[in-house]
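Two quick folds needed for the group meeting slides. Do the first one here.
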Amino acid sequence: MFRFANTYYLYLLILIPALTVLLVLYLVWRKKALNRYGDFQLVRLLIPEFSTGRLIVKFILLMIAYAFLVVALADPQTGSKLEKIDRKGIDVMIALDVSTSMLAEDIRPSRLERAKQAIAKLVDRLEGDRIGIVVFAGKAYNQLPITTDYGAAKLFLSAINTNVVPVPGTAIADAIEMATNSFGQSTHSKAIIVITDGEDHQGAVLEKAEAAAKNGITVYAVGMGLPEGGPIPIYNGNIQTGYKKDQAGAVIITHLDETLLQKIASVGKGMYVRANNSEESWQQVFDDLNKLQKSEIEGRQFSDYEDRYQYFLGFCLLFLIFELFVFDKKNQWYSRFNLFGK
């Protein structure tokens, strides 16, 4: 497996085409300048020690050396072996509601951001478990296939917002079904954590939760929001411009539907908790997950990356040495070989 440890250095390669354009402009300018003194071919005869060919060759050698230097700075690495890791854990799928009602700020900083913070803490506590993420609004999408790569999980989590699912609504049933299918043929202990405010617009939720339970999947439900609810803010970029209103012009208040979520947890043989501005509710879910029986999970990853920058640095020095042997002006020794013409 190949990778660059410092990919940001590769942006320095942009200088190569920029410098090439500058060289071309310089050569055009020099030719026009020489033409002002007379016929270009005649002027070249008057200054035979100068060679455009040499200048171009030196430039090419320098650019090649520079390219190798940039690649060396980016630190190319190769994975020396594929390491097999056996772990014990469970499979957890997060079904996260990203509908606009999750922007309500009755839980600070918002329902969605609070949920993402809690998921990130869950990821930090995992040891050998596999995790995946399904996001849903009017439709459900598999945001992250089940994996033991916790770094990838947090990366995908950070990119989640209400724009990742453009279809309005709250399709909890679709999310549970997709999460159920995401486990594949796994024989490990499995759990689905549905995180939503419970405003379902689809139906058939309990049937999907019950079907998951029959397949040995424990379904948890986490209610995002407070009983009194809250308005849904509208943003233009990062600036709040107001609150979502109904056709009559009244501000819409989104409420937590605890009754539905309690039923989901009941038929899913899991538990329901209401999230608030403290960590206690989430702790109950974390503790219950730890009670599930852990089984062997095999993970594979490349390890022991080895640096390969020294090879590129060596080629860089080699081309710099070549460049030193190409003089700006012709000399008597080089004139015997006539490598670059006049």
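Then this one, please, same format:
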Amino acid sequence: MGDATAARAALKQLARVGRTRLAATPTPLVAVPGLAAQLQTAATVHVKADAWTGFGLGGNKVRKLEYELAPKRLEGATDLVTPGGPHSNHCRVAAAAAARLGLECTLVVDGVPENAGRGNAALHRLFGARIVTVEGRSQREAAMEAEARRIATAGGRALVVPLGASTPRGALGYVHALVELHHQLNGAAAWVFVSSSSGGTMAGLVLGCALLGWRPQLVAVSADDPADRIKSVAADLAVKAAKLLCEDAGSGPESAWHADLVERTREAAEAVIATDAFVGPGYGRPTPASDDATLLFARRAGFVLDPFYTAKAAAAMVEWIRDGKLDGVPHVVFLHTGGHPALFR
């Protein structure tokens, strides 16, 4: 089976996996020549605008939740339970999805927001979520289990979605994003910068590369954890997502695409460049470089970044272009994963 034929067969298999459509996709790939000129690069600089997935004010979490909230997984569910921080983008979109689907929503949140009437904290409440507060991240799992038991005792059934919907199933949402990007760039060589934390977004991109046989250089910019951890977490999720996609693939010529998919996924994951050089003093705390990137993207491209994730990923891209690390690269893509409500916290 040729590469193109195998890719088509794999994407047919992906289309068979259940999902609940929420996102406005495909998201556009926007050239930003003003930013490129400011950075004095000959590369065509683009923004893949996943901040514009639309639902619940958009961002990358929407694509992942489409698969976590697949119709079969929702059968009999009365409640959605999921964790995050007090200003979590994932919690925002999850609460919005619960409202859309007629479910009650409980958010297990570590910490108290400075002002519950601002930013994502306000949106969690606007969408009608019940907020359960725990002191730290290590307590979230037990609290979610307790909430699921409480709901069951009351006669309901909770669908528990892990942090960021960063699961093998959720990662399938970013296979679609990679396919879109491949089409939008006509398969050209490119470097792709993306914020990375819980790993689901990068995992889907990796699996998409393995499915299509396309090898853009993926750069995972950590928002919090060490570089080796974000790379290994994404690789593990990508391999598990590949195995999930291979389930029930059948036999015969049309199924040959999955014969070595896991190995190709491991190879694509190994090729990812991960950096934690832009975390600065900690998660969500700005740096001079992230502040500079926020101003550059606003004033030279018309895009709004956030201080938790995208500003630091953008800072990496800006610095690497300025330092000449991307000289000769024809296309540089910033995958904008959203999060702008954090500016209003």
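Slide caption for protein two: The beta strands are 29-31, 44-49, 79-84, 104-110, 130-134, 158-160, 191-196, 217-222, 273-275, 331-336.
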